[in-house]
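Page 47, continued from p. 46.
Same chain as before, 249 aa.
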Amino acid sequence: NHHRTTPLTPHHPAYLIHTSGSTGHPKGVVMPGSALLNLLNWHHHAVGGEPGTRTAQFTAISFDVSAQEILSALLFGKTLVIPDEDVRRDASRFAEWLEEMEVQELFAPNLVVEALAETAVEQGRTLPRLRTIAQAGEALTLGRAVRAFHASAPGRKLHNHYGPTETHVVTAHTLADSPEDWNLSAPIGRPIANTRSYVLDGELRLSAPGAVGELYVAGEGLARGYANQPGLTAERFVADPFHPEPGQR
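Result:
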């Protein structure tokens, strides 16, 4: 505290995490506390989980989902259960560990969800205690193993969360209870609480329904910008032409 020169506010940075660099060089994204609090409050009401729920602390801390995973558990009375590194890397051992530790909630990218489902189906493990799976970071594919694994435990919920590092989660979709009602791919859903999304053309005009455009997001989930890159921040975090209040990006 003796290093702080002003009182801590929700607009101060909560974390800095670098993008994957898939569209160029990795960039350090500065996320304010207000965005993280908005995400956690939405998660608590939309995804749920009672106090005492056992949540796997699976994701790497270099992945922004880890903030959602860890804090959504600790802020609302859940229990974090931490696997060893060798368990994380072995789908068979991971499935065994989930069953042994009676894990009820898992955050994982599509690749891990698929590998877990394939292993569980092969081993005949239904993992009935695992009631909630939240996928993020990749496109969610709904193959045969994922469908069979989901159907093996009625009541299990599969959530598809979408958002670049610059917004963390910005849209969400909860799949139907029955895999028979699933399409081949999962929708990314609709904006979470206090966020907005637009599909725009090259001149920042709303695209017509069915037309190709780019997805823009706004609201409480936006990062402050890129660390030490004011030019790139100004280029990517543009003014929101659809909001009546000035200063919205």
